[in-house]
Structures
1.
Amino acid sequence: MTKPSHARGALAAMYAGLALTVLATIATYVDRSTTHLLADHIRAGYPAYPQARVDSAVTTYLVVLSVVGALGVLAWLVTAWAVTAGRRWARPAVTAMFLLGTGVGLTGLLTKDTSGTTGLPPALGWAGMIPCLAGFVAVALLWRRPRLT
């Protein structure tokens, strides 16, 4: 049986979101070994921190963002499977995961820490929001009414 075109499009958006989630998660590790945006951001917010404390904060962020990324990957895979399998709960589950993922992304992007600045540098915060665009497309395609021909 062939999937309706809106389901195929939604699955494509979901796999794009999966790839974007993996890339956003990897970006934190690339930053740690190259640009040091996160470390510089923490250092700017807490100039009195010794290097060891900055490194500890960076490691904590990497662990948290890795767990969020892994849960995001799991959510993409489970919801893509549900859409592929034609489960009745797929559309509400995709919608719920989109809302949850967007909430987590906005939290990372906008939450200020005790220094008065956001916890994440803007570049990493926005990187965490990019997979939400694919989630929005997937939700829109799944809830679209099929065309009558």
2.
Amino acid sequence: MGKQKRRVPAEGTQRPRTAEEFGDALLAAASETAKGVRGAAGHHADQLAPDVELPAEAAEGARRAGHFLISRACRSGWLPEDLGQAARRRVDEFARSFVLDALVAYAEQLDAPSWRDRLDEVGAVRWWTASEPHLAQWAAKHILTPAEALTSVIEALGFLMTLPVLTPPGTATPDRSAHHAVDEKKLSRVRALLAKAESSSFPEEAEALTAKAQELMTRYAFDRVLVEAGESRPDVPASRRIWLDTPYVDAKSLLVHVVAKANRCRAVFDARWDFVTVVGDEDDLDAVALLTTSLLVQATRAMIADPAGRDRAFRKSFLVAYATRIGERLERAAAATLKATPDPDRLLPVLASHELRVNAAFTTLFPQVVGKSVTVRSHEGWDAGREAADRARLGDTRS
């Protein structure tokens, strides 16, 4: 169904005549929308499209404006997954679909094969043909009138204008050298264990499966850093953004933080956009992303299943306590795994050197990081969260 809005065409307004003029008019309207001017998108759309058909110049102007802002966003470090996640949070389905289409058109002009998988992950595909302008096909697909279509275009452009420069920037062609490519066999085992843990209806089984996954990741990481210790040029730490869904994003970010710390990474939360940037080695970042996703699923399930967890204070306190206790247990598990390695005396200085590299990279990227506490207002939620984390026995190599 298209947008149901009452339109009142403006009178006495001179409409743009060329594609360049239409593009400029759309960008000017988007600027007002980005500044929060109420109703600006609809007002300008009425002026630009008072007729029953979209002029070809408007379609070309929209294409140019979209390309300009998408290319600016990508140069500012926004990757397809970032744009898809941010658009899902800030604009409606119509504006988001226009953003993704503009992203596809932009990516087609790049020599970046690695973007193909990234585009697929956010559902960005070329579905339109070259036989007629994209805007006309897009409006027909979503059953939008010309004014409604331009309203969504302006909202999409306004959203793109609000995107800041990301630190660190995303990389269109990530360079993971062949000899440090992730071991897909080990990663598949970890994924399988976590998938079983998430789907299990038996807490004890989920506990054991998740614990085994963390143990495998830790052992693999220790083996890897020992191999890298003999190389003349160690890998430079990388970064990754983990997006969090509302509600309780501050409590969820704490869980990302403790998982990152346990896996030799550093993390910082951007509350404006609801993502956590994690800095560390590529394989460690894979481990953090996998384990965090699984733990969030398990924590949410346990929180909802608790009969006392019906209000926001309880649920937020539950998640904070869960994350705090998981962090304690992951650190203890890492220490136990280190102690059980065949050569801990050789591994300790290597891990210390690794930590220095990660900390140096993190400080360079984020020289001014402010610590922020998360308020707990429910003792019942806190106790229930710790109990749920205790049941997990994560990282306990004896489980």
3.
Amino acid sequence: MTIDDLRRILAECAGEDESVDLGGDILDTPFNDLGYDSLALMETASRINHEYGVKIADEEIATAETPRALLDMVARAA
């Protein structure tokens, strides 16, 4: 899974804050700054599971603070 895949998933399933540009370098931008809360991240994890077959526990997804951290979780769980 790439950062572009994650951008698409965030925009499609978790809702996108119109004031946030997901096209820039967002790897280390906190999800709070991107407008995503824990519920949005749980929905993102559900979509990742559905599309990629990678299961991330709710407790673990709640600890992801940045897109880089989430991508690392996906890589470890794959």
